[in-house]
What does this fold into?
Amino acid sequence: MAMTINQITIENFGGIAHLAVSLDEHIHLMETSYVEEMIVILTRLLSVEPQLPVSASWIRDGTRINANVYLSDKQYTVNIDTNEKKSEMTLKAFDSDGNDKTSEYCLNLMHCIEEDDLTVFSGCDPEITERLYHYMDEETFYPQKSLSKLTDGCSNTNSFRLWLRRYIKDTPQEIPNDEMQYRLLCHLKALEFWDGFEDIRNLHYVRKPFIVKDYGEHSEDQNTLFDRAKDTGRQVIVLLPVNKEREKAGRKYERRQVSRTPQA
It folds into this structure.
């Protein structure tokens, strides 16, 4: 089941005074000076665990965040309520008739921590490039059965081990142009592995949008990799910092008819 964020409206959150944006269902480039605020909002909408911390100064009187979200063909209006005193953000979801569907929405988006960790790719954060091979050598890389905890026990099952060996065997080796491409490629392979595993065991598995940030000067020549991310059946949201390099990258993507949000 594909998940798509169709529209987001933000008022008075962090450095964002007002932003209303419609997102492309396939690949969306969002140019913004407030990447970290957008990451917090997007991951809350996707119910990613563990939740990212929120700066106390970001929430104030008049903060308002809502979005239109589709899970397959079912539409939800999702509000993120805030508590200025406690710096808390609480998600609530409603169907098209206004009925409270928060529990249903969150249940559909419930993934293990390891899967949710793959929702965001950051060009600045350390990346486990050989994640799948680490799964194969669990005793070395995941002591004290930590992988089992991260995967809610999935890694202990025969189906997980069989699919892991099959995926590694059947996936051809690829030679990227540089280290950043290599990191993104490894991340996408891990995402593809989990999608394949969930297809085996969960008919109602939700493919959350894939978020890319801090990709900087690399984004203008990553058409193939971003298209590969889109081919996983996920909406791809690329957060671009505002600078001249981004403008050039944006113009190149606009020629490919990819949706792009003006500066926020």
In short: Residues 179-201 form the longest helix (23 residues). The two ends are 30 Å apart (CA to CA).
